[in-house]
Amino acid sequence: MTTAETKRTIDAIWRIESAKIIAVLARMVRDIGLAEDLAQDALVIALERWPESGIPANPGAWLMAAAKRRAIDLLRRNKLRERKYEEIGRDMDPVHEPDFDAALDGNVGDDLLRLIFTTCHPVLSQEARVALTLRLLGGLTTEEIARAFLVSEPTVAQRIVRAKRTLAAARVPFEVPEKAELPARLSSVLEVLYLMFNEGYAATSGGSWIRPMLCEEALRLGRILAEIAPLEPEVHGLVALMEIQSSRFKARLSPSGEPVLLLDQNRALWDHLLIHRGLVALERAERIGGTLGPYSLQAAIAACHARARTADETDWARISALYDALAQLAPSPVVELNRAVALSMAFGPAVGLEIVDALMSEPSLKNYHLLPSVRGDLLMKLERKNEACEEFKRAASLTRNERERELLLSRASECVETTRFLKE
Q1: Which domain holds residue 148?
Q2: 76-96 pLDDT, tens per residue?
């Protein structure tokens, strides 16, 4: 194996193992910033030794053992908590060759759960939560996070540094929240994963409509969370939603990279393994939870699309009912806009347009490009093409995504061409 190949292999191993290592170290030293530094020290040692000695049979355990040694040395030097040191010493005797398989045993799942709750703590801003989660749990570099969100590296680096300082200053405990706090804290975790996935699924800005890396990372973290918090129905609901949505990636872009809307997609390109995984996760959420939560309801809506072999077979009446339930449980203008689309498909565009027109004065949707986009689509179906054209143009002026802007301007042109053809 060449040096370059070894480096790529180490990078891949680090991406897989880093979250577990940082989680265990954070439990030991009670400081996620320090835990990351210690984990990075272990990575540096690996980068120095493995090109010569070869990659160990169990590289994750090797890194874990090396990182724990660094933590033990630090605790000994600083004379921190003699009792804690004795406990850690019992876990790993630094005099003897460590048992690498045993190094990964213990409460790694619990430690990961603590780390997720810490990086997604409400004391942090939404941007900080996302950046810190991608960094510590996703193993992404600052450069990768900056590229994913189209912001500068220094901006991302500052968010991460400030997040660590904020957690330390607030003395946020490295623990799973108490039962009374759990719903609110879990909601913060799921919000981060949902935001991360949505930004990848339909990028708000830039030259690409989708950013698969963000979706893949959100889904990977969601799967981990589902394994270590198996009795939380909304965790499975969000995983189900992400699995089903991810199944459409190959069909969401044309060969030239242009967006393809849901009803126009070639469903033969959908990934049926991901659909199956999503449906299984949704069934698990339904078995655990009784009444479906917001993420599970959205997953149920996605499942309706996934089960339809063609666009014409979509059960829009059921989707409308699910949106009614979602609007009651988690009311918002965006949910209402989506409900309008479902009702228009089930009962005609005039029904949907009535709801959309009522949303036109909603302040929070003033600069939301999908509002005029949906209105344009409904006007188009009602043969009010001149009005539809203006709505598509307005939507194009509001979106910051280049691909989406091209699609909306194309739809505006179609309105003009159709009108001209009818006049002729």
Answers
A1: 120-172
A2: 777 645 555 455 555 554 444
